[in-house]
Design goal:
The protein has 101 residues and is an all-alpha fold. The chain has one domain. The protein is built from five helices and no strands. Helix 2 runs antiparallel to helix 3 and helix 3 crosses helix 4.
Length: 101
């Protein structure tokens, strides 16, 4: 995967926190920022998928795809966050179609 440079301004507090994490983790600041960005993007994807799922806009399978996790991981996330999940025949049909063609 090709990397591109992205410039961003952050508050002094955020910069100091990145510096502290860098020191604790014994990695450079760029690595810390990439890890934090990855974690934030992953969480954003999960939260977006959960929101759409709760509103009934997407199925469980589609929510798992949006979040970038397996359907089993998505069920675990729903349980962990106490989001009631619904799984009906249309969800099963969609899963089987995607999994087995």
């Amino acid at each position: 995967m090709a990397e591109v440079a992205v410039a961003v301004r952050v508050s002094r507090q955020v910069s100091e926190l990145i510096e502290r994490i860098s020191s604790e983790e014994r990695v450079d600041k760029s690595t810390v920022i990439r890890k934090l960005l990855d974690l934030g993007l992953r969480e954003w994807r999960v939260q977006r998928a959960l929101d759409k799922y709760q509103r009934g806009e997407v199925t469980l399978l589609k929510a798992s795809e949006m979040a970038g996790v397996s359907i089993y991981d998505m069920i675990a996330i729903l349980e962990e966050r106490k989001v009631p999940y619904r799984y009906d025949i249309s969800d099963l049909t969609e899963y089987v179609r995607k999994k087995f063609g």
